[in-house]
Every structure is written in structure tokens, then in C-alpha cells.
Design a protein that fits this description.
Elements: E1 6-9, E2 13-17, E3 23-28, E4 31-34, E5 39-42, H1 46-63, E6 70-73, E7 78-82, E8 85-86, E9 89-96, H2 99-105, E10 112-122, E11 131-132, H3 134-139, H4 145-167, E12 171-185, E13 188-194, E14 202-206, H5 216-219, H6 225-235, H7 243-246
Antiparallel strand pairs: 1-2, 2-3, 3-7, 4-5, 6-7, 8-12, 9-10, 9-12, 10-11, 12-13, 12-14
Helix pairs in contact: 1-6
The chain binds uridine-5'-diphosphate (UDP).
The site of uridine-5'-diphosphate has 14 residues, from strand 9, helix 2, strand 12 and strand 14.
Amino acid sequence: MKRRRMIYEGKAKILYEGPEPGTLVQYFKDDTTAFDATKRATIEGKGVLNNRISEYLMSQLTAIGVPTHFVRRLNMREQLVKEVEIIPLEVVVRNIAAGSLAKRLGIEEGTVLPRSIIEYYYKKDELHDPWVSEEHITAFGWANPQDLDDIVNLTIRINDFLSGLFLGANIKLVDFKVEFGRLWENDYMRIVLADEISPDSCRLWDVSTNEKLDKDRFRRDLGGVVEAYSEVARRLGIMPESVQSEQKGPVLVK
Ligand code: UDP
């Protein structure tokens, strides 16, 4: 088999050259990192679940008219995406205080915020992804005011839609991170949702018990990471063909 050209390897995903110009293949690894990649682990089956969950969320967002880079899932660990020019920002939306917001501003984790808050972090590993304002973003040209306007409008729609979608699955969308890219179609440029949306990039709590169903299980050594991600998939009604079917073992011959 012809070896594909690797374009980029991140902490949890690899990007390969796609089958046609302007496309890429996004491969979901089982690797996970936290605290600026100082904590690392491999969680068997995580990549399969994130591939499926992200496919589902991106498809649902496409259905309400949010443009995304997602084209289709190719197999258990890979999806075909459109090649975009990534805007170097992590756009975080918060509905309930948790994580760095709770810590930085001394707000008790679990406090429902008076309104949803959008924050920006400059994607730069060497600088540990610093918190930045719209002023920094436009002054340094990472995005112009029109791009930011599109980003904010899309982010608000994504948050409203996903909050409702998760609530229907008995899950609170506490906060999440999204990334956007510029998609060029001839001379025309559109800002589209890129990367992934999964329990790696969202905080998801059970509505009645506040049990964590996301990457905080890894960050805080709570155990049951794959079980929690599977539970999210199950509640969304998209349990994949399965994480199990990827594992080797006796096969029933019919
Ligand atoms: N997040 C992410 N990637 C990052 C940083 C944050 O996906 O590099 C997500 C994180 O999972 C959470 C939200 O963004 O859902 C807000 O994260 P926070 O700023 O509280 O940082 P953390 O506690 O993850 O350090």
C-alpha cells in the first residue's frame, strides 16, 4: 500500500495528505495529554470514540448551516476534511465556571455564569497558549475584525446548538474549545469550524449528578476515561460499531 504523506502530527491527531487536492485525512490517536503536555497517556479506544463523536457533532452543525471542514468519516479512526488555513486561536466558550476560569478568577467550579463567555487563547505551544484579547488578535493580524465577527457569530450558534443537543442527552455543556480555519474557494474566503469537537475539548457533566464525562477524568486521575466517552456516545445515540470490534479476539463465524 502506498504510504501517505504526513502533514502534521499533533498531541491527539495526525493529519495526512488527502486523496484529492484541498483535502486532508484526520487520524484520531489514542494519545492524550494535559497540563501543557506534561502529563501523557494512551487511552485505548479514545481515538475511535472521538472520531465518531466529532463526526456526529460536526454533521449536526452542518445540518443547521454552520460551515465546517468535515467531509465524511472514512473509517474507525479517520475522517476526510477540507484543507483550511488554521487561525492560530483556541476559542473557548464557557457556560459554567470550571478549569482555568474558576482558578484564575476565584469562581467556584459549577457556578452558572451570568452569560456565556467567549475567550481567546493564542495557539503557540512555546508560550503555553496565552490568553489574548480581540485587541491582540487584530493588532497582530491573526484575524481581522471581519474574521472575528464571523468567529463570534459562529461560536454563539455552536454554543446554543450544542448546549441544547447535549441537554437532550442529559449532559450539561460546561465549556468547550473550538478552532476555525479559512477555506478558500477560488477567490472567495469563508471562515469554517475546523479541528474536532469531542470530550477531549469539552467539559461535559451529567445533568443530575454533575459526574464528569470528559477529559477531566484524565486530568484529575478519576479513571474510567473510555467508559465516560462511551457514555457520551451512547447518550447521543451514536455508540460506534464499537471500540470492541477493533480489539483482537475470537471472531464468531456465521
Ligand atoms: N481546552 C482544549 N484544549 C486546550 C485548552 C482547553 O480543548 O488546549 C478545552 C478544555 O477541555 C475545556 C475548555 O477548553 O473544555 C476550557 O479549558 P480551560 O481554559 O478551563 O483550561 P484547562 O482547565 O483545560 O487547562
